[in-house]
Write a structure and sequence with these properties.
By secondary structure, this protein is of the alpha/beta class. About 35% of the residues lie in helices and about 20% in strands. The protein has two domains: about 60 residues, Orthogonal Bundle (DNA polymerase, domain 1), CATH 1.10.150.530; about 280 residues, TIM Barrel (Alpha-Beta Barrel), CATH 3.20.20.70. The structure holds S-adenosyl-L-homocysteine (SAH).
Length: about 350
């Protein structure tokens, strides 16, 4: 795909309208084309029958619709979770997970091919960073699954492969397109962005005043111990992250939540619970405890389920709201931190 060409399905409606006006076309044509891509979820420009033939030819000359396809689907036997390997235009593979919670359906999408954050316990980072996903490639993950399962996705979590705030502009583009009335029209309140704490971009996101839910991967309340599992802590301290969270809450009125991947003997003591209470004092927040999903590259395990409940009660006794994340799709490596790009290479 040539770089100079325009990626139509990564353009916000206003950008597409400006483009059409610059081509001497009417605005409503841009809206027809936008609906074709984001409501009909169609990847072939020539199938857009509403547009005149000459315009279709002109569009094909200057741009393209970025197309992804389902490469493989794994279905969990334990629950209704499905993991999709999605093939991008350049043959790279990413993973996307569909979770069925009965009344609503959630997808966990990837934001990058690989990841450069280097968290020691996370599979996504093990094969290094390859490239950012475009806004269209994030949208395509949702559209492909909706088409495949013939249903509507009403919740999106950006918690798959990659660090969303390390691909800031494309993630914002994604949010604006998916939220557009002329597109999928998904409420931003139904979207969660998970970050390891890129402080400068938490401030930037707060200033956008988009009501998305922000969740911070905290995993340890002690700076030195957090650094041992999350190298990004060198750049952004826990103090700085918490200040940014307060700012986010003030700007958006959205309660920030924290993810806490619990690892036996490493971050699960009373001392950790007490320090969590100390650092989170006065912050309207919530902790989501994620039992560690073991990966071969990391030597650590989750505590027993019984003990995880003990840790949860410790937090609650300190006045911190906490929940334990249910494992989804454990038998298909669909759970948190188990997604990796490059499955294709491994299988081969
Ligand atoms: N880069 C984003 C999204 C990552 S994945 C972030 O750091 O938040 C979403 C969550 O899964 C993060 O909290 C991440 O730290 C956690 N996670 C990663 N590997 C894990 C593992 N092996 N077991 C449990 N949780 C894991």
């Amino acid at each position: 795909m040539e770089n100079k060409k325009i990626e139509f399905n990564s353009l916000k409606i206003e950008e597409l309208e400006d483009l059409f006006l610059s081509l001497g076309e009417k605005k409503f044509r841009a809206e027809q084309f936008f609906r074709f891509m984001h409501q009909k979820k169609n990847f072939e420009i020539e199938n857009c029958k509403q547009l005149p033939k000459v315009l279709i030819e002109k569009l094909k000359e200057i741009g393209y619709i970025n197309t992804s396809s389902i490469y493989t689907k794994y279905e969990s036997k334990l629950d209704n979770t499905k993991k999709y390997l999605i093939k991008l235009y350049d043959n790279r593979i990413i993973e996307t997970v569909f979770m069925d919670y009965g009344s609503y359906c959630t997808v966990c999408i990837s934001s990058q091919v690989g990841c450069r954050m280097g968290c020691t316990f996370c599979a996504s980072t093990k094969e290094n960073f390859k490239r950012n996903l475009t806004s269209a490639e994030m949208l395509n993950q949702i559209y492909l699954i909706e088409n495949d399962l013939n249903l509507t996705i009403n919740n999106v979590v950006i918690m798959g492969i990659g660090e969303p705030l390390d691909n800031y502009n494309n993630v914002i583009g994604f949010l604006k397109i998916i939220n557009s009335e002329k597109g999928k029209n998904l409420s931003l309140r139904n979207i969660t962005i998970s970050t390891c704490g890129l402080v400068h971009n938490i401030y930037k996101l707060a200033d956008e005043k988009l009501p998305v839910t922000l969740t911070i991967s905290l995993h340890n309340p002690f700076q030195k111990e957090r650094r041992e599992i999350m190298p990004i802590s060198d750049n952004f301290s826990i103090d700085e992250i918490l200040k940014a969270c307060k700012y986010y809450f003030d700007k958006t009125s959205r309660r920030v939540s924290f993810e806490y991947t619990i690892i036996k003997g490493q971050n699960d003591s009373k001392k950790h619970a007490l320090e969590l209470k100390n650092i989170l004092k006065g912050l309207n927040c919530h902790i989501n405890i994620i039992p560690l999903n073991s990966i071969k590259e990391f030597d650590g395990v989750a505590p027993s389920t019984k003990y995880i409940y003990v840790f949860k009660s410790m937090l609650e006794n300190y006045g911190i709201n906490a929940t334990i994340r249910k494992k989804q799709g454990d038998d298909i490596n669909g759970a948190c931190g188990q997604l990796r790009q490059g499955v294709l290479q491994e299988e081969n």
